[in-house]
Automatic annotation (TrEMBL):
Pfam families: DEP, RhoGAP. Residues 190-382 form the Rho-GAP domain. CDD domains: RhoGAP_BRCC3-like. One of its GO terms (biological process) is intracellular signal transduction. It comes from the Eukaryota. This is DEP domain containing 1B. SMART domains: DEP (SM00049). It comes from Poecilia reticulata.
């Protein structure tokens, strides 16, 4: 946790000495300006923050430390007033200021784990109503056996089975499961406990972020009410394409571009939560440790940004693209008299991108580092990760692929479900007659063809019940007696 790590570094390295104030001696203390100097250099040299950290940001962090009782003044007071960058004396309290890590349900809990849909999950798939199931093809021909017996020996009877159609809900579940697994692998973690809860991942959002996009790869929202107001998009286009972006042909005046920027900033700064959401805060904070490995960090951000709600992903992508264009536009006048345009853009929008619900976290410093990286590589970050997409498509293709089922295996996935279809009464009576006549005809023909059985015995067989059939009537016997009595036997 970055908060605890920063506190440990600060407490472990901050020089403490004896100070005099109001004719009194205070041991193991430090002045406010000394703390700002030391922590500023510490943050600038730390790879998690970098040289972009300003002295004002450092002062803001120390004020958070003061309110959280990480430090206190020499009289033991804390949080009642602001920490000052002057000669006022402070000290470290004896109690531990570290935060306890949050406990969350284990990722391995079967109730939370998004299990991957497998090919043999046959019974879980719904069947379309009033549609007869497809019959399995039986591959037991002599030709098939001859072709394969040399390579694999004796071949038993087998069936070619197909899995039923995969529903859109199951496709969403597969994307969710494989995306979370891929994220855990990229982050190099054995578990995502305390970082990401499966309940906070929506498979449908992932599918929308991948497939519902325009030619430039920006999400297209189905519900237009969730989109940004037209006037905000118009202001962003004007600033991104300056000076040709003034579609409304509004009169330009000195400072017009600054007012346009302020319009965009007001919209983003009034959002209810950061674009990366509170739920995904720990995920993106963990990515900060990968920023030195640019390719790995980019891949982690590619996967993580797929978890965002589509409206958030759209706003974030448009914002980062605007920031990058503004920073690289030499024709755009300075947007601030004292701060460089690049620094201004990062400081103005960083807290709109990343933040936690806990005011004591290092939101501003962490956001500055992450947003700077995302702004520089936004084109690659918002591309769909090729490895993940290939894995999911291969899995879905496997689910739709036919497979061979051999007789005698432990599980028979080819068993067709029960299926009933109502028929007419006339058809039913016709089937009863046909079903009775065919066995009788086969029986009589078999008796006639038997050359070893005497004619007398054949007559007796015809008069006796056989195989559950009633004795033949006189009409049926007369129909077949010429063939039976062909040996000169008298007629009945």
């Amino acid at each position: 946790m970055q908060w605890n790590e920063t506190i440990k570094l600060f407490r472990g390295g901050m020089p403490l000495r004896r100070h005099w104030a109001n004719f009194r001696c205070y041991d193991c203390t430090f002045a406010g300006s000394e703390a700002v100097d030391y922590l500023h250099e510490l943050l600038r040299s730390n790879y998690n923050f970098g040289p972009e950290v300003t002295r004002y940001q450092t002062l803001q962090l120390l004020r958070k430390f003061f309110k959280a009782h990480v430090i206190e003044d020499v009289k033991g007071r804390h949080g009642t007033e602001d920490f000052e960058d002057n000669s006022h004396l402070y000290r470290f309290p004896t109690m531990s200021p570290l935060k306890s890590l949050p406990t969350r349900p284990s990722w391995r809990d079967d109730s939370d784990l998004p299990r991957l849909i497998r090919w043999d999950d046959y019974e879980e798939l719904p069947q379309k109503e009033n549609v007869a199931p497809q019959k399995s093809a039986v591959l037991n021909s002599d030709l098939w056996n001859k072709r394969h017996s040399v390579a694999i020996g004796d071949v038993h009877e087998c069936k070619l089975i197909r899995r039923r159609e995969v529903t859109s809900k199951q496709v969403d579940h597969i994307w969710k499961s494989m995306t979370v697994t891929h994220l855990q692998r990229v982050l190099g973690l054995k578990t995502l406990d305390g970082i990401l809860s499966p309940a906070h991942v929506n498979g449908k959002d992932i599918v929308v972020n991948i497939f519902s996009v325009n030619k430039t790869g920006i999400v297209v929202l189905e519900n237009k009410a969730e989109d940004m107001p037209y006037w905000v998009i118009s202001a962003m286009k004007c600033l991104a394409n300056w000076p040709e972006g003034n579609d409304a042909k509004q009169p330009l005046y000195p400072g017009f571009e600054r007012d346009v920027l302020r319009t965009v900033a007001d919209y983003y700064q009034k959002l209810k939560e950061p674009l990366l959401t509170f739920r995904l805060y720990e995920v993106f904070v963990n990515i900060l440790s990968l920023l030195q490995e640019q390719d790995k960090a980019t891949e982690a951000l590619q996967v993580s940004c797929l978890l965002l709600p589509p409206p958030n992903r759209r706003r974030l992508q448009l914002l980062l693209r605007l920031m990058a264009r503004v920073c690289h536009n030499p024709r755009l006048p300075p947007l601030n008299d004292t701060i460089a345009t690049r620094t201004l853009m990062v400081q103005m929008f960083s807290h709109c991108v990343l933040g936690s619900p806990d005011d004591m976290d290092l939101d501003e410093l962490l956001a500055t580092k992450l947003v700077t990286f995302m702004m520089e590589r936004h084109g690659a970050i918002f591309q769909v990760n090729a490895k993940l997409r290939c894995q999911v498509e291969e899995h879905l293709s496997h689910l739709k692929r036919a497979q061979i089922k051999y007789a005698g295996s432990d599980t028979d996935f080819s068993a067709s479900p029960a299926f009933c279809k109502q028929i007419k009464r006339v058809d039913c009576e016709e089937q009863k007659v046909i079903g009775t006549q065919i066995p009788l005809q086969q029986l009589l023909e078999g008796l006639i063809a038997d050359q070893e059985l005497p004619a007398k015995d054949k007559r007796k067989r015809l008069k006796q019940p056989c195989m559950g059939l009633q004795p033949l009537g006189k009409t049926a016997l007369l129909a077949y007696m010429p063939a039976v009595g062909g040996c000169g036997a008298p007629a009945l």
